[in-house]
Amino acid sequence: MKISPYQPDQSGMAYSVGTTLDRFINLKQNDFPFASGELSQLLRDIALAAKIVNRETNRAGLANIGGAFGQTNVQGEEQQKLDVIANIRFMRALSKGGEVCAIVSEEEDAVIDLQNNSGKYVVAIDPLDGSSNIDVNISIGTIFSIYRRKTPLGQPIQSEDIMQPGKDQVAAGYVLYGSSTMLVYTTGFGVNGFTYENSLGEFFLSHPNIQAPKKGGIYSINEGLQNEWEQSVKNYVDHCKDQRYAARYIGSLVADFHRNLLKGGIYIYPATTKNPSGKLRLLYEANALAFIAEQAGAVATNGQKSILDLSPNILHQRTPLIIGSERMVEDYLKITKQEEPSYPS
Question: Which is the most buried residue in 82, 135, 145, 225, by most CB within 10 A?
């Protein structure tokens, strides 16, 4: 009888094809000797809420939960019915687990103090990014950031627990609800992606140790706003066209970012005359994706500084976001500073 030895993957750890999210989290717990299991449980809570939102998303056309809710959120944006549903689902999951002391949500005006002074973590979340696309069956997502609280346990939360720079994140991730549902996250030890298997109700490791290509061939920007851009941004877009890059813009941040992360590309949402401070939110959109990008070998900047070095001043602070393959972001920064790009046509 011939017996072949088992070959581990390139990362050196023997993950089988059937590695579930729970099993993977258990295997990685030793990365967090200080966490005593709370961070692992928090990631499981987020995964559970994502499963529920996935179910609601898949039945949106049948259950009359698509379309506008009839109210606006703190951003002045019209809430969709699924925005409200996703916010409720994640709030419930995060509040019942016991690991979280406070939540910052795109859908809430103020910080949600859970009155759990023994909770070690603060979660900032966009429960449903791109939800206006649900009515036309386009991919949408959830984005989350996790921070350790700064103040001692047992005391009420303070502003320093909430207003932390992205470099202080202990974990971040996103869920993409599309042709398949994926959960991608990092805890500062690389980026891993898990695909949801509906019949088994489990996330399985499908994209271990994601590494972004250093250079890609995709640029993602809303060209309908070009009359509101600075000339330097127009110059970079002209450069992309000269390089014959493909223009791909879905309008769901998670979907655009996910594609570029895997295939190589750059996502740009610059300052405009209408939104001179940018449009994307720092605490629960830009920070999370920047942490993931940098762990995968990509780059994230506001055009002046690394996103992860920005210190928030207000809860729903906005920022320009330029994020993607390292060489493409480098070229963006060179061209917008009126320098020559780093590589020839």
Answer: 145
